[in-house]
Design brief:
This protein has 493 residues and is an alpha+beta fold. The radius of gyration is 36 Å and the shape is elongated. Helix 1 packs antiparallel against helix 10. The protein is built from ten helices and 15 strands. The strands form two sheets. Strands 1, 2, 3, 6, 7, 8, 9, 10, 11, 12, 13, 14 and 15 form a 13-stranded antiparallel sheet that branches. It has a two-stranded antiparallel sheet with strand order 4-5. Helices cover 34% and strands 27% of the residues. The longest helix has 70 residues.
Length: 493
């Protein structure tokens, strides 16, 4: 029996040592296995079904919500009074994106064009596309600023042309017309006699060139040669740098195309991406950690310096001529139109901008820009890109349409493009990148713990068996001595 118990104790010790060894190996090898799987599934490759489909077709709900600033006092503005606006909306559109003309290259890059289409979602909107809104007329007030240095007589002639085509300083149109275009005799005239002067050859609308269009020819790295470069832009429309801005730094095309990022992010990482709509590269910084449906995330936000002017933040000098901090002058890539981009309601902008317009109420919760990233894979879990479109306007002598308008950066609308992982994609993502790594992580510690327990039990059993054997040995020798003593006693008698 003692021999059997010895074998049992030896078995416990062997199993325990093996379990500790296996768990220790997992401690070191487990992260390597996980990282290797992340790299394997992050590379842009048609063989990677989940990641390739996510990159190619964006199989998650994505929406654009548009808020208009309805002008309440247009006549008073022409007399020099402060503009008063009222936010209307949101008018929500489902965004459909699909990459086409996908071409892989030998240098570990891939080229494509991404086409986008928008579909109105009445159930998610506050109002309808038939709602009537009044906003500044970009054609008239924008042209007045662009052409302010022409001879006075020419300015008067252009102003008369506006009157002939019945174009005034403010537009009152439906949401659908403002978004996707309306018939304008002036636009038709300009397209006929001055082609390429306007961004659209058909109807004139703020988002007319967005719908059924593509964002240009992107060439990005697949990550096959270096996973640190995956999704990063190699060129856009054949360009490795822009020509819109005044300095080489400002003209750099940095980061990704704004949909996915390289894996293995840290709190020191930044989210850089090139935005054709903003005509520049943007960079977000880490704010805080978080959790979404059990998936760990890092939240990245726009720093206050993103749209700061060159005085407050010298690296932005290349994006000037600048006005107050919080405004990005995009006239150089928008047909010289005096258009500025900002955060909604001038959030994070110079407070003086709020003094010029009544009806704005900025807050980080409603107007801050953020992206929630799964740091291990670089996959966005929740995205909210919020930007505002503004028109710089003022009274210009010779353009009677401008009246006595006070110099002001006038908010016209702001929009939010948001999307989040949900449904089957979320389930698969959670299983492969959270549950399985978690199971592997706990397995290594459970294996070590069980191994130690088995080893201790084996040692205890071993010593117990040894102690029992020793006790039995002593008992046998004691019996023999007693028998010998009794024998001697009988002889003496």
């Amino acid at each position: 029996m003692a021999v059997n118990k010895s074998k049992i104790s030896a078995g416990f010790i062997v199993v325990g040592v093996l379990a500790v060894f296996f768990g220790t190996v997992l401690v070191f090898v487990g992260p390597i296995i996980i990282d290797d799987q992340v790299v394997k599934n992050t590379i842009i490759d048609p063989k990677n079904n989940l990641s390739y489909t996510m990159w190619k077709d964006l199989p998650v709900p994505f929406f654009m919500s548009v808020y208009f600033f309805h002008v309440l006092n247009p006549q008073e503005i022409l007399k020099g009074e402060k503009p008063m606006v009222e936010q209307r909306g949101p008018y929500v559109y489902r965004k459909q994106c699909q990459k086409e003309n996908i071409t892989f290259h030998p240098n570990s890059t891939v080229s494509y064009r991404e086409y986008r289409r928008y579909f109105f979602e009445p159930s998610m909107s506050v109002g309808n596309e038939s709602d009537v809104i009044t906003i500044p007329n970009m054609l008239v007030l924008g042209a007045a600023v662009i052409l302010k240095d022409l001879p006075f007589s020419v300015r008067m002639l252009i102003s008369s042309t506006f009157k002939v085509f019945k174009e005034g300083p403010f537009l009152t149109k439906t949401v659908g017309e403002l978004m996707w275009g309306y018939d304008s005799k002036l636009v038709n005239f300009l397209n006929k006699y001055l082609p390429d002067m306007l961004p659209s050859t058909g109807k004139f609308g703020i988002f007319a060139e967005f719908n059924n269009s593509n964002t240009g020819l992107f060439t990005i790295h697949t990550g096959r040669d270096d996973i640190k470069n995956v999704h990063k832009v190699d060129s856009w429309n054949g360009l490795t740098e822009l020509s819109y801005w005044r300095t080489p730094q400002s003209n750099m095309i940095n980061g990704t195309a704004g949909q996915l990022w390289p894996p293995f992010m840290t709190k020191e990482s930044t989210l850089s991406f090139y935005s054709p709509d903003a005509c520049r590269s943007l960079e977000l910084v880490y704010q805080r950690p978080g959790v979404m449906n059990g998936i760990p995330l890092y939240r990245f936000v726009a720093p206050k310096t993103m749209f700061a002017n060159g005085i407050d933040y010298p690296p932005n000098e290349g994006f000037c001529p600048c006005r107050q901090s919080g405004l990005l002058n995009v006239s150089s890539c928008r047909y010289n139109s005096p258009v500025f981009i900002s955060h909604p309601h001038f959030f994070n902008a110079d407070p003086v901008l709020l003094d010029y317009v009544l009806g704005l109420h900025p807050s980080e919760e409603e107007h801050g820009l953020f992206i929630d990233i799964h740091p291990l894979t670089g996959v966005p879990l929740n995205v909210s890109i919020r930007l505002q479109l503004n028109l710089y306007m003022k009274s210009i002598l010779g353009f009677t349409e401008t009246g006595k308008i006070s110099e002001v950066v006038m908010p016209m609308l702001w929009f939010e493009e948001n999307g989040y992982i949900d449904g089957p994609v979320l389930t698969t993502f959670h299983t492969n990148l959270v549950i399985l790594p978690g199971v592997m992580k706990y397995m290594q510690y459970i294996s070590i713990a069980l191994g130690l327990v088995n080893t201790v039990v084996g040692i205890l059993v071993y010593y117990k068996v040894k102690a029992t054997s020793t006790g039995q040995g002593k008992g046998s020798r004691g019996s023999e001595t007693q028998e010998k003593s009794m024998t001697y006693s009988e002889k003496d008698m």
